[in-house]
Amino acid sequence: MRAAVAAAMSTFLYTLLGLAAGSSLHCAERRDISPCSCRAQEPGQPLKVACERVAGLSAVLAALAGRFPPETEVALRVAYSELHDLPAHTFQQLGLSIHTLMLNHDNLSALPEEAFSGLGRTEYLSLADNVLTLVPRAALRHMPRLRTLDLGRGAVAALHHGDLQDLPELQHLVLAGNALARLDAQSLPPALRHLHLGRNRLSALNGTLRGLSQLEWLFVNGNQLAQLDGELPAECAQLLLLHAASNRLRRLPAELRACAQLESLFAQGNELEALGGALQRARRLRRLHLSHNRIAQVSEDEFQELEALEELQLGHNRLRELNGSLLPLRALRCLNLTHNRFERFSLREILGLRRLFVIDLSANNISALAGHVAQNVVDAETRVVELRLEHNRLRALDGALMGLHGLQRLNLSHNLLEQIMPDDLIGLEGLRVLDISFNRLKTLEETSKTFLPSLEGLFASNNLLTSLQQDFHGLPTLCWADLANNQIETIGRELAAKTRCRIHGVLGTLRIYLYENPVRCDTNLIETVVAMEANFTKLYGLAPCVAENLTTSVAA
Ligand SMILES: *[C@@H]1O[C@H](CO)[C@@H](O)[C@H](O)[C@H]1NC(C)=O
Ligand SMILES: *[C@@H]1O[C@H](CO)[C@@H](O)[C@H](O)[C@H]1NC(C)=O
Ligand SMILES: *[C@@H]1O[C@H](CO)[C@@H](O)[C@H](O)[C@H]1NC(C)=O
Ligand SMILES: *[C@@H]1O[C@H](CO)[C@@H](O)[C@H](O)[C@H]1NC(C)=O
Ligand SMILES: *[C@@H]1O[C@H](CO)[C@@H](O)[C@H](O)[C@H]1NC(C)=O
Ligand SMILES: *[C@@H]1O[C@H](CO)[C@@H](O)[C@H](O)[C@H]1NC(C)=O
Ligand SMILES: *[C@@H]1O[C@H](CO)[C@@H](O)[C@H](O)[C@H]1NC(C)=O
Ligand SMILES: CC(=O)N[C@H]1CO[C@H](CO)[C@@H](O)[C@@H]1O
């Protein structure tokens, strides 16, 4: 989940910050412009010139002046430098056409009024990673064409009315990671499309977004917002993404119903107790992250029109029931319900969700699974590939998984399973990994009557198994069996007689892990080990018994 958010964030920031650079123009010789460097890439893009750890703007001027044809279009970055001589010099003196200017990690706490004079064509300015406490309004007045302004990770505490008023074309504004606690009314330019106010100290948005009818991406995550009621743009028809995670939201704003284009909503880490129908009509919504809230109920029609939803993250909430609410989610691929309060789960809740790929029901309190798909619907063609049921209270499977034909990974670890019946896993032709570790299984004998033609990995450590005989006879392609921490005393020689490890058609060796078992160390065992090795099966964890005896036995 976090990865997804991070990916969305970085895509966004990439759009803003990841400028394509280069030019059909050639760079000056590197030694000529030291300590700066130059990179040319795609034609038609500005030359990328970077200077690091320079002693002042004068040093930049000395390095670059006269090295390029006049008015060459550049993206200039001056970073990790001291620009104490900014009042004495200006960027205009470089004689270049600065399309992009990035002054990062330069310990800037303020900018002189004339710093940017002559930069009337600059479209992109980054002052991120400095210590500015105010928006440098007077300096920005020289940049009327600015489309992108990045003031991220600074110390700006307030956005005042008029701070950005001289930037009529501003579309992308990043103020993330400052100390913003105050936003004055009408402090944001109306043409904004992307706005990042994340990781500040905002407890209210003060109506500042109401007029932003072009807004597509809004980040207000990591603030102290208790509500967004009446704060979204009055016309939010363009809004594609709303990132409001890690606030104190107690509900979602009803106006979300008007944001017909919304594709992503991140509201995890809030105090939501219900959704109140705010998302009912979000027909375009694809990603919905609501984990780490207090959601206790969803009404039957909560997701009524969410026919495009692919990912639903509802982990770490207080749900006990789904109320059939998921059934309209025809495009759902990932359903995450980890750490809720389900005591039973019925597969009827996912009936007809043909795209569903992964279901995470781990860490609930599920003691019963119900409503297996095969029994209920003829057209129940599910594609669930991964089912996570670990950390629940299941004592039996009751055949509930029958019919999940596409299942490849099944995690049942940390439950209370005492036995698995042949019917329980019937029809799971595609199952590749089965985790039944940390249960109370005394034997796998019944399991061995099911045929699992694709199983590659069996995790059954930390159970109460006492003996291994024909337990793998239904597992023709097994490659990996972890049986550590059981009570296994005896291992039948024919255990793996019908198994030949195979992954994607490639033959390999079956590895069986037997650490921490009271395996009886006798001549039988030694012979079993030798016979198995001849059949591409290796037993691990029987040292010191085998290690010592094997040499004698083989030598004999
Ligand atoms: C940053 O600038 C301040 C003065 O504005 C100065 O006192 C401080 O030493 C500078 N820090 C670094 C790391 O250069
Ligand atoms: C809201 O805006 C008003 C006037 O524009 C300002 O005085 C006030 O401090 C702002 N409040 C917050 C919490 O930003
Ligand atoms: C199920 O949905 C109905 C309305 O559709 C609602 O009244 C009821 O409280 C919901 N039940 C649960 C357990 O969420
Ligand atoms: C479900 O969400 C939790 C965090 O809320 C995450 O750790 C877990 O990996 C997710 N499961 C899946 C299958 O994505
Ligand atoms: C788990 O479910 C059982 C009933 O199956 C109930 O007695 C118990 O209180 C539940 N535990 C939690 C933590 O909800
Ligand atoms: C099953 O879940 C447990 C607990 O989350 C985890 O440690 C284990 O690695 C999972 N098994 C597999 C095969 O992924
Ligand atoms: C070894 O493989 C052969 C042929 O598949 C089989 O007949 C025999 O029982 C196997 N022996 C052991 C110890 O697995
Ligand atoms: C059959 C056999 O040789 N068993 C011996 C294997 O080694 C252990 C010591 O590790 C002896 O106790 C067994 O008698």
Automatic annotation (TrEMBL):
SUPFAM superfamilies: L domain-like. Keywords: Leucine-rich repeat, Repeat, Signal. Gene3D superfamilies: Ribonuclease Inhibitor. GO terms for cellular component: extracellular matrix; extracellular space. The keyword Lyase does not apply. Residues 1-22 form the signal peptide. It comes from the Eukaryota. Transmembrane segments: none annotated. The keyword Hydrolase does not apply. This is Insulin-like growth factor-binding protein complex acid labile subunit.
